[in-house]
Amino acid sequence: MKRKVLLIYTGGTIGMEKDYETGSLQAFDFGNIFQKIPEMKLIECEVSVYPFKKPVDSSDMGPKEWKFIANHIGENYDNYDGFLILHGTDTMSYTASVLSFMLKNLKKPVILTGSQLPIGDLRTDAKENLLTSLYYASLYENNEAVIQEVTIYFEYKLLRGNRTLKYSAEFFDAYQTPNYPVLGQSGVHLNVKKDYLWRNKTDDQFMVDDHISQDVLFWRIFPGMHLNHFTQIPNVKVLILQVFGSGTIFNTPKTLKTLQMLRDQGTEIVVISQCVSGGISFGKYSNSNIFTKIGAISGHDITAESAITKAMHLLDNPNYEGNFAENFVRNLCGEVTE
After folding, report:
1. pLDDT on residue 289
2. Tell me, which fold does domain 216-328 have in CATH?
3. What is the pTM of this model?
4. Does domain 3-208 sit in CATH 3.40.50.1860?
5. Binding site for substrate: what residues are annotated?
């Protein structure tokens, strides 16, 4: 039985080719994808292509595009066995993260991929990324999808989407999940680490929850900064603070006073680490106790991309019971270590 995969092209380098008259990159007609990559016809799946009418640079991707992708998957969920999203690399981790929260009770693969070089380049990484992503998007065993979550496939590695970060703009191996193992690797054989795959613990039906609030602010703490700017924040509902190490900040009376002022005005404060690996541990050092005093929320080992999109999704979302803090600390779809 041939599996059916819907390929959604949003934009990005993977869909570019060089205009040899001008030397600049331009989007090619994705209706000709099978001519560009004839090897796609050799894969044991039927591929339908849905290109955005106007390709979107990944730096322009945001709530409007996230909602469109999520709802397009929702509208086509029963008609396809898997979904492949071609996306620019710079914000792919944000899109993968937010889709993992929007696509509730997912039982089918949603794979995002892109490339560092255009598809028409002689040394392009686009073909391998696209072809192997199609394999993963159509991978079933005993009539059940092997992958039932949102992932990123890039440079021979399958990664949990809401755990990824882009760490290189130079190398083909551009993505990592420092706080979670690789889900699969492609070599001579297509490998999947089934023990690491996410599985929903309920039998609830798939649904799209595209709620997004943009009343979220991200701020990186640095040595020597003053906190006067915080007093000028106009009642932002969620402030994500990226702090030192396992959760420390300069311990001064003014720090406590300023952060407490934000809490008193109703701002939720989420604390995440600047470290690529590891996470927040309140109480490990005395300079983290300030966050316990003000009732801040620990992000544990969540990535910045996932923390931001999770906060945007949960804030004022009527589909969740309980308050923001209670829901943020929950492991919704594998984004934090329990």
Report:
1. 95
2. Rossmann fold (3.40.50)
3. 0.95
4. no
5. 58, 89-90
